[in-house]
Amino acid sequence: MNFTPAIIAKQLAELESFAGKPSRYIVAFSGGLDSSVLLHALVNILTEEKNEVPIFAIHIDHGLQLESSSWVELCRKTAADFGVEFQSIKVNVQLKSGKGPEASARDARYSALCTEICDDDWLLTAHHREDQAETLLLNLIRGSGPAGVAGISRIRRFGAGWLARPMLNVDQADLQSYANDNGFRWIEDPSNTDRRFDRNFLRHEIMPRLKSRWSDITARLQRSAVHAGDASQLLIELAQIDLKNLSSNSARIPIDQLTDLPVGRQRNVIRFALRNQGLSTPTTAQLNRVIHEVILAREDAQPLVTWPGVVVRRYRNSLYLMPESLTATIESTPILGNELLLGHGLGRLSFELKANIGLSKELFDNGLTVKARIGGERISPLGQSHTRELKKLLQEEGIVPWMRDRLPLIYSGDRLVAVGDLWLAADAVSNPGIVVCWAGRPALH
Question: How far apart are CA 238 and CA 251, in angstroms?
């Protein structure tokens, strides 16, 4: 079929029924053929429809090619010719462990774009049917499940807004014809022909051979991606049901109930619980380790499995799914105001005078300090008749072992007067008093 702006208009209207009207369209503008067509078509649509949604073009300069500075200027000129506001952002691509230059550049690009997205903005990318086919094949080769085989989604949440791909049903050949008919100049990135990269190998070596046998191969693969997307959505809905039945907290799942599910549903709900917290999902090997080394461990064991950004632990009869940032520890810090940040992943303490029992205002005015636990601490908790070892209190309360040394202990001189918002010392309180609140507190039980 011949490509026209009306095709994108129809796709955007369908996506609006799902995500609502955008505040702005932000086009990820590389200056290549595909994004040039997207930007031009979008301008035509909004002009014809007298649509007042602003359009912005953002170019990400990865700095990986000698020509990158001249590409910025070409993109700036193209955007000006189209009457679109333009911005260029230079990023520093850091090669990440286990990731090649393509994936590292993509991570840097999307990270930079995400910072530019405001409430209800739509980031538009120019992915087309060939991109979808390549992604599906790459994910099959990697051994991905339904979510991977579903390939590139038409729309998904992205920062404060949405990431939309309105050209997924369009063949690149039709985009090329449109660009030629409109006399576009576009950037040809030489890295796109480097067959050392998996995607380029598929694009230049495999896809032409598949098309020589099945001319409509990209449309067939697109249909498979849609079917896999439906299956993936059903798995998400099943995981939502299972997690609701198991726990009200994605970070802590009771193991007895979890193991009542078939292993496939255990894997499914663990992946979902991780995504629900914004954590990265595991590989098949990592997930199998969670099943066999953590869930099936002895009840008195304290095993853990980690991957970048995530720690999975067992304590007593619960599975804990946590960000890796909880390796942060409490620093010895004077309390100088009404709020104290405890470190990344540990939340913050706030102190407020209220008409109920709290820390003595006199103690607070004389100066308090937050310290980490080192062992041997004792406290006379309010409501109990005698001094207790903090170690025993933590065990009785069922505080998870990995948080016991990360609790903020509040001292007046050398005297322990409060343990986070868990206990106050009986001889350190008044009414009214200073109430301790621990916001953003990690799971303790």
Answer: 18
Phi, psi torsion values for 354, nearest 5 degrees = -135, 165
% residues pLDDT > 90 (the chain): 42
DSSP annotation of 428 reads G
pLDDT for residue 75: 92
What's the chain's length in residues? 445
- Domains (ranges, CATH) in the chain? 5-224 (3.40.50.620), 247-326 (1.20.59.20), 333-439 (no CATH)
Query: Are the CB atoms for 62 and 68 separated by under 8 Å?
Result: yes
Structural contact between residues 309 and 300, judged by C-beta atoms closer than 8 angstroms: no
In angstroms, the CA 378 to CA 65 distance is 62
Calpha distance 112→88 (Å, rounded):
11
Pairwise CA distance, residues 307 & 146, whole Å: 22
Mapping DSSP onto H, E and C, the string for 386-406 reads CCEEHHHHHHHHCCCHHHHCC
Predicted local distance difference test score (pLDDT) of residue 373: 86
Residue 97: is its pLDDT beyond 60? no
122-124 and 25-28 beta bridge pairing: parallel
β-pairing, 55-61 vs 85-90, is parallel
Contact call for residues 331 and 369 (beta carbons, < 8 A): no
Q: Which two tokens stand for residue 189?
A: 């990135």
Q: Which residue has the higher pLDDT, 281 or 37?
A: 37
- What is the phi/psi pair of residue 259, to 5°? -75, -5
> Who's near 288: CB < 8 A, 6+ residues apart?
none
Would you state the structure tokens that stand for residue 320, as one six-digit string?
Answer: 């804990």
Starting at the edge strand that comes first in sequence, how are the strands of the sheet with 423-424 ordered?
A: 333-335, 368-371, 409-412, 415-419, 423-424
